[in-house]
Amino acid sequence: MLFARSIITISCIVLSVVNAAPIISSPSSPSPSSSKSYISEAGFLLTESLSEYYENIVDQVMLDVSEDVLTYLPQSISHGNVEARHLAQKSMNRNLNFMRASLLASVNPLVSTDIPQIEGLNTVQQIDNTQERTNQDEIEASLLSSILTLNKKISHQLGLIVNAEQSSNILMRQATTQIVKQVEIEKPTVVTVEWKLRQPFQINVIRQEEQQQQQQDVTSESEWLYGQLSSVEINLLNEFNDRAQEAVQLVMESLALDV
Predict the structure, then answer these.
(1) Would you tell me the crossing angle of helices 32-71 and 244-254 to the nearest 10 degrees?
(2) Which UniProt key words apply to this protein (predicted)?
(3) What is the mean pLDDT of residues 116-121?
(4) Position 135 confidence tier, pLDDT thresholds 50, 70, 90
(5) Which end of the chain is more exposed for a tag (fewer CB within 10 A), N or C?
């Protein structure tokens, strides 16, 4: 009996020691969810920084184009009428401002859609400061190539939004509508006793001539405006590429890869 009690006592002591022993766990590796969270944050920073960068360039390019259009709007559009020209410029300026606002509002959605399609920009999001990184020169070279690809996509997509051919016709017709209204106000009243099909023949002839001349002006000036608006996509791409190195540095700083 005494021997049995001794065995029970020893067993209890052993169990107590085992239960009291510290539990040593192996270092846990980052969970997939935390990795995705980092990539998501990196993607957000990348999108926001590049969107702001592109918006600044788009804004400046559109301001320059608008200034050229308003300054060099052909004199023939107003036939020497100063007030009519002012009305045409006012209409054109309003529509160009609306176009600029539309382009600026489109930049962020385009950037966020295009980035996942470019491998280099996806790869850079997965680099963090806790990992052994590739040589910084290699990162910058890869980024530069990716930025140039993104530049081409963004400028082309914005060019499609400008839609130079259709927009030039619409903007010019709206501008010349103001001129037609001004001409109608200032046009002297013609009184005639000659009738043709119960219409004043003389007035009918004058209106036909004015309409024909106005159509010629719209066609000619629309072609001129088309050239101006077509330059938006080209100017954007040139400006994007000229400042590509600036974009690379911006990405490096945003993702803290320049340390």
Answers:
(1) 150
(2) Signal
(3) 89
(4) confident
(5) N
How far CA 152 is from CA of 73, 102, 146, 235, in Å, comes to 30, 19, 10, 11
Residue 123: band (very low, low, confident or very high) from pLDDT cuts 50, 70, 90: confident
Tokens (6 digits) for 229: 């608006």
Q: For the chain, which residues make up each domain, given as ranges?
A: 34-187+194-254
CA distance 145 to 119: 10
Residue closest to 94 by CA, chosen among 3, 196, 177, 181: 177
One-letter amino acid for residue 97 of the chain: N
Q: Is the pTM for the entire model greater than 0.85?
A: no
pLDDT at 163 over 50: yes
